[in-house]
Amino acid sequence: MIITNIETVPGQAVREDLGLVLGSTVRGKHVGKDIAAFFKGLVGGEIKGYSDLLVEGREEAVERMKTHARSKGADAVVNVRMTTSSITGGAAELMAYGTAVRLKPSEDK
Length: 109
What we know:
alpha+beta
């Protein structure tokens, strides 16, 4: 499955627009990571535990979006965007969304 943040796939044309697809996940903080983050915040720098948490969340959201697209019979998801929002003080939602499409070879070659 092709996933892209642009509106088209080079060399391909959209044969059919299948509509919006999305995937999301809610991730919570781990107490151990909170303690490490507190101390890291005192001295500055990347809080690796939180970075890893967000990377894993984005990957899961994209996989769920792809599953949604496959269920519609899509070849690709175009114009993909991601967003993160705070649910509570200890959890965040990560969402990936885009337009599911069926492709055909472009006639403009």
